[in-house]
Design goal:
protease, two-stranded antiparallel ribbon, Rhomboid-like_sf, Rhomboid family intramembrane serine protease, Rhomboid-like fold, 2% strand, 257 residues, mainly alpha, elongated, single chain
Amino acid sequence: MDKHFKFTNAVVGLPLFFVLTLWFVYWLQIRFDFDFVENGIYPRTFSGLQGVIFSPFIHSDLNHLYNNSIPLLVLLAALQFFYSKLSIKVIGYGILFSGILTWLIGRESYHIGASGLIYVLFAFIFFKGIMTQYYRLVALSLTVITMYGGMIWYVFPKVDEAISWEGHLAGLITGFVLAVLYQTPEFKKVPKYEWEMPDYNPAEDKFMQRFDENGNFVNLPKEKVEEFDGFQNYYISNQEVNYEIVPKEKDESKPES
């Protein structure tokens, strides 16, 4: 299964490209005095729907952008390395559905920033690793929860009024749903032994038959051998067979007459 984990240029290129895009948008904002905030998500308004696509690329200040950049670099690299086949889908659908959910449940204010996507990546990597039960992905899940587990507090209201807890909650829910929906059969354990097969029946296993219901070792019952007329039945046929017993004559030469 380790063949699925390959280091490619995309492991570094994808996170760098995404984060540099965020910095480029922020540079345009301060260089030309653009106000992109109004392009964010404004819940339950038609114009606010544009923020579903644009809001992850908009940040209010340098500190906001910096705080989002580091987790994005780490989580995007982990996603691309361990789930390369799903990375683009998780990013694309993560932005889309977390944005729509924020638009539905958010306060009447502009919601901007890539933190919603961060929560999508965090939830997807954590829950997917636990679901696969593959030791490397479980270790990745534990690493992610150790590094960013404190983020879970910011999905609750009134922890920090300045942040969009609705966007965080929407991202967390979206990441969990994507982890459930996207199957990863390549990480399933391949059965090596007969008892790991789904159709395994212990009652038919000769080894398991050597133990009783209490787990005590017992001898196998002797197989009955069918006999008839004092002879073993070695011949098996659907046709009726009649045996005739012929006495053996003494093999002696007869005298000539």
